[in-house]
Design brief:
With 520 residues, this protein is mainly alpha-helical. The chain is built from 20 helices and no strands. It has two domains: 386 residues, MFS general substrate transporter like domains (Growth Hormone, Chain: A), CATH 1.20.1250.20; 56 residues.
């Protein structure tokens, strides 16, 4: 509870912060959100280095991404309950401190199972960060400035994916991959100390509600089984493996029982009744589809650059980072004018930008220059800045102030689950399509094919032995097949963005909550 000097209004809410205190709170909350999102993207360009260091394949290396995202997803819908039970300020600070501790342990991992275990714990404790961060900003900003607060927060969300690849590549190439996690320690401690100093006497009202044990067990078992299936599916050939099939059945059964249980429980762990709100349902669905596609390209693109085009982690980071450059300039302008824009038209434009940029990427091959590879990502940044903030406005429209943490937690859960599923599905699709293209291309390389005869003759004239020449030809075919497989994935993700467009138009104005008003 708040200290004796705290002053609350009739509804138990505190008056907004002003001046330097508001600035410091914004910085502290932004740092925490920055770290949480950064840890979803900073590992992307470092997967080959991590997997090589720990003696696993790059596909297994992606467990370091998906395990964190799914573990965070388990806890995100519980953010509202955690905030109500223990207080939003205490929950936020405790989550930050535990995040710092498990970040340090991730850096100390000496095997992939150990790293995945610590990433799972890091994800668990980071679950409430995003949702409670949004709730703290909205509670402590003046109502007329809450749109600007969300704009500033959106800038952080946009800026983190820029820094993730660059920091990840630079740290991996110049230090070592454990430092990807060690950098969280000082920043997390500063954010926790600042938040506690400012808000320790402004704690939210706590309510001792019963613990939904059945809902919690169903959620952990269902999502845990889903996580195992996604993490191991590529290596075990998916449903041809009894283990993967068993995990899939357990996940389906547990999550199927979870839905009716949570809808009928008087104190649900996950408040699925929020989906009765049309705009919450539409906005969350649109974010899920868009984030699936966005996460897919963010994982496949740097992997393709490093495994097929032989980019270093640093240069792969530089190539993918421009996605946020334009967004840094557009997001604050959009935040200040959020009440003037059409909340359905703006994300529609964003999805068209995403679709066209991904189609552009799908036309590139292994001969593309750095500029040709990074320019589509720069263009994609327009879409990043235009879809996140308006869809957040749609999601929160009509949500009561005391349900903000619940709504943020549930929407973040869907978003994170979508991203985690995307990681496994897109890696599987890329591998599958690469194998298909390799088989098709290999059919053209035989003793009677004129092109094959000519190419092998050129290699022979350069003094390359026949066995080495054929090995080189297979290497070329493998690279081209990998590129064609990646292009297929990029084209599919472009289609998904087009699919998300009609979903947005099912939302109904007015959009805005708690003093944030958005246009039709």
């Amino acid at each position: 509870m708040a200290g004796p000097t705290a002053i609350t209004g009739r509804d138990g809410e505190y008056p907004p912060l002003t001046g330097l205190n508001l600035v410091l709170l914004t910085i502290a909350v932004s740092i925490s959100s920055f770290m949480e999102i950064l840890d979803m993207t900073i590992v992307n360009v470092s997967v080959p280095s991590i997997s090589g260091s720990l003696g696993v394949s790059p596909a297994e290396g992606t467990w370091a991404i998906s395990s964190y995202m799914l573990a965070a997803a388990v806890v995100q819908p519980l953010a509202g309950w955690i905030g109500r039970r223990f207080g939003e300020v205490r929950s936020f600070v405790a989550s930050l401190l535990l995040f710092v501790a498990f970040s340090a342990l991730c850096g100390l991992a000496t095997s992939m199972p150990m790293l995945v275990a610590f990433r799972i714990m890091q994800g668990f404790v980071s679950g409430p960060l995003m949702a409670v961060a949004q709730a703290l900003l909205l509670r402590n900003y003046p109502p007329q400035k809450r749109g600007m607060a969300m704009g500033l927060w959106a800038m952080v969300v946009i800026f983190a994916p820029i820094c993730g690849p660059i920091l990840g590549g630079t740290i991996t190439d110049n230090l070592s991959w454990p430092w990807l996690f060690y950098i969280n320690v000082p920043t997390g401690l500063i954010a926790a100390a600042t938040t506690w100093m400012l808000l320790r006497k402004r704690e939210s009202k706590t309510v001792k509600v019963p613990i939904d044990i059945v809902g919690l067990i169903l959620l952990v078992v269902g999502v845990g089984s889903l996580q195992f299936m996604l993490d191991n599916g590529n290596e075990k050939d998916w449903f041809s493996s009894p283990e993967i099939l068993t995990a899939a059945v357990i996940a389906v059964v547990a999550l199927s029982f979870l839905i009716p249980w949570e809808l009928t429980d008087p104190h649900p762990m996950v408040d699925l009744r929020l989906f009765k709100g049309r705009n919450f349902l539409v906005g969350t669905l649109a974010v899920a589809v868009a984030f699936f596609a966005f996460s897919g390209v963010n994982v496949i693109y740097p992997l393709w650059l490093q495994t097929t085009l032989n980019y270093t982690s640093t240069w792969a980071g530089y190539a993918v980072a421009p996605v946020g450059v334009l967004a840094l300039f557009i997001a604050p302008v959009l935040g200040r004018n959020i009440h003037r824009v059409n909340m359905r038209l703006v994300p529609t434009i964003a999805f068209l930008v995403f679709a066209s940029s991904l189609y552009w990427v799908s036309t590139l091959n292994e001969t593309a220059t750095f500029g040709q590879l990074s320019l589509p990502r720069l263009f994609q940044g327009i879409g990043v800045s235009l879809f996140f903030l308006p869809l957040n406005q749609i999601i929160f429209s009509g949500v009561a102030p005391n349900e903000l943490a619940n709504a943020a937690g549930l929407s973040n859960f869907i978003r994170t689950m979508s991203g985690s599923i995307s990681t496994a599905v897109c890696v599987w699709l890329w591998n599958t399509r690469s194998i298909y293209h390799h088989a098709v291309l290999t059919e053209s390389v035989n003793a009677r094919a004129p092109g094959s005869i000519h190419y092998l003759g050129v290699l022979s004239s350069k003094g390359i032995p026949d066995v080495a020449a054929r090995g080189y030809v297979d290497h070329v075919i493998t690279g081209q097949a990998s590129t064609m497989g990646a292009n297929d994935v990029f084209l599919l993700l472009a289609v998904l963005f087009l699919v998300a467009i009609p979903v947005v138009w099912f939302a109904r104005p007015p959009f805005g909550t708690g003093g944030m008003k958005g246009g039709h």
